[in-house]
């Protein structure tokens, strides 16, 4: 009989591209993962992986087995959720992946509320802007507090359930003694020294797309995904930044914010979980806390997905 844990390791190696990377994400040694995959190879009697430069790739048999493994692991998740629903109680552990820009005003208040309402629940929070939904599909995390910009394609993987939290507009940020709080057109920013997110990021792509709609291509003087750095540059009068509203502490001294008047740039903040037919009480509690925090700290709450 096939071992579910070994199937999970095969899926992780396929997604990560190497045994070393898979071992790191699974908190195991590369040797332990190799041993388990060798045992899986003996179970099925055929090679499942082949060298591919510095990485590994699935053989034809490996691809076939992975298709079945995905269905098997999904069924296991369904079973776990169904049993948890019968118990009707929130569990003891969960892992949340959250964007750095959401920590102060959404993730942290939600974690405080969870600690009060469900003291038995320990939530591990991974602060990262890298491949969050992939981690969700791999089972590395249980809930993702993520983002999607409205005018960019929706790349949500199959099997992921998204619960919208709020629309979060990007604001124009300058030094407090520059400009005013009236709406600013993007076209005006063509003459500014800009501090923008790298074009390879979702935020950078969204800004680039909006600027093209406004009739120009931005040439930022400062390129960084670090919002704290963008705000520091704006506060110093060195640059104008475009920063999500929830990432800005209203009490931050030395800056002025204004909305974009002609081509608003909106990111949708959402909570995502693996889809199961039966709701899991633990992930439901985490999503509910995030929704409450978003309603209280950000824009008006959106209806459930």
Sum this structure up briefly.
The protein has 305 residues and is of the alpha/beta class.
How would the blueprint of this fold be written?
Blueprint: H1 4-16, H2 19-26, H3 30-44, E1 49-52, E2 55-58, H4 60-87, E3 93-98, H5 103-117, E4 122-127, H6 132-138, E5 143-149, E6 160-175, E7 194-196, H7 202-213, E8 222-223, H8 227-235, E9 240-244, E10 255-259, E11 266-274, H9 281-297
Parallel strand pairs: 3-4, 3-5, 7-8, 7-9
Antiparallel strand pairs: 1-2, 5-11, 6-9, 6-10, 6-11
3D structure, described in words:
With 305 residues, this protein is of the alpha/beta class. It is 41% helix and 22% strand. It is built from nine helices and eleven strands. The strands form two sheets. Strands 3, 4, 5, 6, 7, 8, 9, 10 and 11 form a nine-stranded mixed β-sheet that branches. Strands 1-2 form a two-stranded antiparallel sheet. α7 links the parallel β7 and β8. α1 packs across α2. The protein is globular and about 70 Å long.
Q: What attributes characterize this protein structure?
A:
two-stranded antiparallel ribbon; alpha/beta; disordered C terminus; 305 residues
């Amino acid at each position: 009989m096939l071992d579910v844990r070994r199937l999970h390791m095969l899926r992780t190696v396929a997604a990560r591209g190497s045994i070393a990377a898979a071992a790191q994400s699974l908190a195991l040694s590369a040797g332990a993962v190799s041993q388990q995959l060798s045992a899986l190879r003996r179970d099925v009697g055929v090679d499942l992986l082949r060298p591919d430069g510095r990485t590994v790739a699935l053989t034809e048999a490996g691809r076939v087995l992975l298709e079945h493994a995905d269905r098997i692991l999904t069924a296991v998740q369904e079973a776990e959720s169904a049993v948890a629903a019968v118990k009707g109680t929130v569990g003891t552990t969960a892992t949340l992946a959250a964007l750095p820009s959401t920590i102060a005003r959404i993730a942290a208040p939600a974690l405080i509320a969870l600690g009060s309402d469900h003291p038995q629940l320990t939530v591990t929070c991974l602060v990262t802007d890298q491949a969050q939904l992939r981690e969700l599909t791999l089972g590395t995390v249980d809930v993702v507090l993520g983002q999607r910009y409205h005018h960019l394609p929706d790349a949500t993987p199959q099997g992921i359930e998204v619960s919208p939290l709020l629309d979060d507009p990007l604001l124009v940020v300058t030094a407090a003694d520059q400009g005013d709080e009236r709406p600013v057109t993007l076209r005006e920013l063509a003459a500014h020294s800009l501090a923008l997110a790298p074009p390879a990021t979702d935020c950078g792509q969204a800004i680039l797309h909006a600027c093209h709609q406004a009739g120009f291509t931005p040439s930022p003087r400062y390129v960084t995904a670090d919002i704290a750095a963008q705000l520091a540059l704006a506060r110093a009068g060195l640059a104008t930044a475009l920063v999500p509203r929830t990432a800005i502490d209203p009490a931050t001294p030395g800056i002025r914010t204004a909305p974009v008047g002609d081509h608003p740039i909106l990111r949708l903040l959402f909570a995502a979980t693996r889809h199961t037919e039966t709701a899991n009480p633990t992930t439901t509690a985490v999503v509910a806390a995030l929704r409450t925090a978003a309603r209280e700290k950000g824009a008006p709450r959106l209806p459930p997905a």
